[in-house]
Amino acid sequence: MSSEKLPFVLPAVFTIGPQMTTLELGDAAKAAVEAKLLLYAKLIAPLLLGGASASRVHDLVKGVIEGETRVLAAQLTMDEIFTSTKKFKQEVFDSVQKELNQFGLFIYNANVKQLVDVPGHEYFSYLGQKTQQEAASRAKVDVAEARMKGEVGAKERTGLTLQNAAKVDAETKVLLARQQGEALKEEAKVNAEVQVFQNAREADVAAAMTDLAMKKADWDRQAKVAEVEAAKAVAIRDAELQMEVEIKNAKLKAEQLSKATVQYDTQVQESNALFYGRQKVAEAALYEEMKAAEARKVQADALFFEQKMAEDAKLYAKQREAEALSLVGKAKADYMASMLAALGGDYRALRDYLMIDGGMYAEMARINASAVNGLQPKISVWSNGDGGSEGGALQQVSGVYKMLPPLLETVHEQTGMLPPAWMGTLPKDGTAAN
């Protein structure tokens, strides 16, 4: 019966028996076959001993087949069973084989026949009639379509040719675009990996780049200072030469003109020479200040670049340190989880293991030993003779041992901690051990 409560008949023939073949099998497969034969022997033992009827095994296998088939059919609709018959048969075969494994039986062949209607529920018959009607209607539609195609065939051929050509062109462009996209993806992936490697390398050479920038700034400053000094010397020399030229011209004119004119011209030329010399000195000083300002700007840029590279290097180091701490924490968490799983989820056993592995018990023993190191206690046990001299002395020690079980039990009730195995265990009945 399907999930829609529709009954149907599923004729089937199964060839079932013990698995006997062990040829070309490994040792493990042979052992599995022997185990299945042992299960089969246990199944048929009552038959051989006369304790059961011969139809017992047949009824058992038949019940397994019918039960598994009913369970699978109840999960599917009738349409799913009919349209997916092959899948339904395979699921029935697998389910039955899984149940028969516990009896050492093997399905050699399974022949599931066509599904049959139950009298009064002609689902498959109506479904066949529906299929025939749909086929007839489809045939009529096909005839009409063929007639229509015959009438418009020539024009449709031309249109289809143009459409197919356009489709091929479009698919070619799409394929080309897809290939270019894949190439761009691979290139971006490679570029990303190269960028990651370059970033890692840049952090290593940051200090060298800073030193190089400082040295370049110093060299530029020295070169510009030298240029300023050279330009200033040239300007001063130019003024001196101009002054000498003007003086010589004045002397030459003094020889040709009158004394007054010569004196006047000489004074004018000297004034001009003095003005020209002062002007050149002022221009040299201005040029020197401009070059000095440029040198200070270059030096400030180099210092800013150095600080920036140092900060970037510190940031990269912090990031790497954070990643390392994250990996260490994850490794510790995985280690703790694996240790807890290996110990069966026992947190107390894990705690004892960690204390032993960390050397805590050894450290406690060392601290206790150092606390009493150097002490030489003198203990005298006095007895009044009750129970003998030896019995009186050992009675104190016996009292101490009797006190330990209640003490350990109290600690266990309050803290949940158990004493180590070498110290002793609590009595199961909760009373102090004598």
UniProtKB/TrEMBL annotation:
List the protein's name. Flotillin-like
Report domain Band positions.
52-146
**Keyword flag Flavoprotein:** no
Membrane topology annotation: Lipid-anchor
The cross-references to SUPFAM superfamilies, in alphabetical order and at most eight, read: Band 7/SPFH domain
GO cellular component annotations of the record? caveola; plasma membrane; plasma membrane raft
Where does the protein end up?
Cell membrane; Membrane, Caveola
Q: Which UniProt keywords apply?
A: Cell membrane, Lipoprotein, Membrane
What is stated as this protein's family in its record? Belongs to the band 7/mec-2 family. Flotillin subfamily.
Q: Which InterPro entries match?
A: Band_7 (IPR001107), Band_7/SPFH_dom_sf (IPR036013), Flotillin_fam (IPR027705)
